[in-house]
Design a protein that fits this description.
240 residues, Rossmann fold, seven-stranded mixed β-sheet, 7 helices, 11 strands
Length: 240
């Protein structure tokens, strides 16, 4: 590969071919960009990550008190996890990631935020299926703390509640799945979800069956590749 494009890692996974690549964008002054692809799907880019940061900021802003225990579902390039760790009230952060190579990239320092996440003693990576763990009552998300309940859970795995990386994830977004998941949370705990689609009235209705409050907030950000604003959605819901 030329110096302007490099495939850093390529792995076959149960969800498809996973690729971490680096490229420089000449039209942006030679900016170095890291990208994660799964099959034909773009999972993450370092070029814009405003919504991933907003996911953590919005959810944690809903919480009072200190000594917060937080789960992030989906590691990606680590932007949501790092945004959570910037809140000094966070006591512990478990990042649940189904794809082992993604965890390896961070442990091996192959992605830009790796040292900040690996070097923070509050943060640990959990290799596991977030959706499978969410459906098991009493199991918890962190095998080192079975049954632990969390003050905030921040989820960024599927593209949206309807645009899924795998069909088996669909049950999570229905009332029964959300109800099973909510049992993992502390009273008055907050659930945050990233979505690349506009607000979904059906999913908001499902949240309303389980949580005492819920909302969808559109977050706009500038997309320099397209030269215009783009938008994603952050859902915020609170348990009773």
């Amino acid at each position: 590969m030329g110096k302007d494009f490099e495939v850093i890692d390529f792995q076959q996974t149960p969800l498809g071919d996973l690729m971490l690549r680096r490229r420089t964008v000449a039209t942006l002054g030679g900016l170095e960009v890291f990208e994660v692809k799964l099959g034909d799907e773009f999972l993450m880019t370092s070029l814009f990550h405003d919504v991933e940061v907003a996911l953590a900021d919005f959810a944690l802003a809903e919480l009072d008190g200190t000594a917060l225990d937080v789960v992030v579902g989906g590691l990606g390039l680590g932007y949501t996890a790092l945004a959570a760790l910037k809140d000094a009230r966070v006591r512990s952060l478990a990042v649940v990631e189904a794809l082992k190579p993604v965890i390896d990239w961070h442990n091996q320092g192959r992605v830009p935020l790796a040292s900040q996440l690996v070097g923070d003693p509050r943060c640990r990576f959990v290799h596991g299926d977030f959706f499978g763990l969410a459906a098991v009552p009493g199991a918890g998300f962190d095998p080192e703390c079975p049954g632990q309940r969390f003050h905030a859970v921040l989820l960024d795995i599927d593209h949206s509640p309807r645009h899924l990386l795998h069909p088996r994830h669909a049950a999570f977004y229905e009332p029964d799945g959300l109800r099973q998941f909510a049992a993992h949370m502390q009273p008055r705990g907050v659930f945050g979800l990233w979505s690349d689609d506009p607000p979904d009235p059906d999913f908001l209705r499902n949240l309303g069956h389980v949580f005492i409050s819920s909302r969808a907030q559109v977050v706009k950000f500038y997309n320099p590749l397209q030269g215009r604003d783009s938008a994603s959605t952050v859902y915020i819901a609170r348990v009773e």
